[in-house]
Amino acid sequence: MKPLVPKPGILEIKPYVSGESRIQGIEHVIKLSSNESALGASAEAVSAYNAVKNGLHLYPDGNAVELREAIGVQHGLDPSRIICGAGSDELFYNLARAYASVGDEIIYSKHGFNIYPIVARTVGATPVVAPETSLTFNVDAVLSKVTSNTKIVFIANPNNPTGSYISENELYRLRKDLPEDILFVVDGAYAEYVTQDDYSDGISLVDASENTVMTRTFSKIYGLAALRIGWGYCPPSIADVLNRLRAPFNLTVAAQHAGVAALNDTAHISASRCHNAVWLPWLSNRLKELGLTVHPSVANFILVQFSELKGKQSSDAYNFLAQHGILTRKTTGYGLPDCLRITIGREDEVKAVATMLSEFVSR
Ligand SMILES: *Cc1c(COP(=O)(O)O)cnc(C)c1O
């Protein structure tokens, strides 16, 4: 029998490769490979999660009302324009399903988040890559890629894996010069970590323009990656479309309850933000002192380039760190073969990776 042929695009998907989480023979791994929260989940979120176990026979609230209201209160937004997803990934897939199909084009930037081209292929659309400048999203390059087939532009701001961002002015300029009927998705997965004054998470742009969606996640600063919670802030018409497309019970009870508790524990969020504001520059400076190139980052990870080191490669560094129980993220799949991405972990973890890279460099 011949295997069934799936819809156009699907066999062109290169499956997403996530950060590694295991090293054979090592029990206690320092996992700096997936940009998870250094401080973990809020204790409040953990107790909300624990409390769920007596009601496992009950369906979740299909509209995630409490969670959307809590997000609305926290960010000053109308909950009817907030859509929750099983991770922000689910929102990207549904936006593509809604607004792009075979022959359409979806633009993202050269070292942009790897999910965007996958999302494009799932609906048979063509992912179109715009070049970057100094590993940073380039508004003019994206505008020059726009054709009559363009349906969606994705930006991660700040971007993973580069850690770079574009200013509020640039974000607004892109929207202004993009045709109105192109959907602009601003992925703010790391927005909470950014301390720069010229940064915007995109909420105001959703209000100030047509056809712009901002997405956020509980997987990073909220420390709830295991529960898969994302949300988007949308124009009413797009919220309506996403509500038709999403699975009716796309967020589990645990996700909804822990999400509300995590949102309300603002002290924990501040602690996570402060932790990052200390250890991001600390690790960046230590590694620069070792002669490594550290690309400027405003998120909770750094992109480290090894090409200045004679005779030593990023793959050697990856293996050396792994032998010592430290997992980092290879970025070859992002077209950055001479780099590794390293998450800002706890103090002891950050110090351990600095020590081990110092050993690596001096070997
Ligand atoms: C981690 C990350 C996300 C979050 O994805 P979830 O599905 O919400 O876990 C989204 N965008 C970028 C750029 C990320 O790095």
Question: How does this model look, in words?
Answer:
This protein is an alpha/beta fold and 363 residues long. The protein folds into two domains: 10-31 and 267-362, Aspartate Aminotransferase, domain 1, CATH 3.90.1150.10; 43-265, Aspartate Aminotransferase, domain 2, CATH 3.40.640. Helices cover 37% and strands 15% of the residues. It contains twelve helices and 13 strands. It has helices at residues 43-51, 65-75, 88-99, 115-122, 139-144, 168-177, 203-208, 236-245, 253-264, 266-289, 314-323, 347-362; strands at 30-31, 82-85, 105-109, 126-130, 150-156, 183-187, 212-217, 230-233, 293-295, 301-305, 326-327, 329-330, 339-343. The strands form three sheets. The protein has a seven-stranded mixed sheet, sandwiched between helices. Helix 6 (168-177) links the parallel strand 5 and strand 6 (183-187). The radius of gyration is 21 Å and the shape is globular. It starts with 29 loop residues before the first strand and ends with a helix. Residues 35, 87-89, 113, 156, 160, 187, 189, 217, 219-220, 225, 230 line the site of pyridoxal-5'-phosphate.
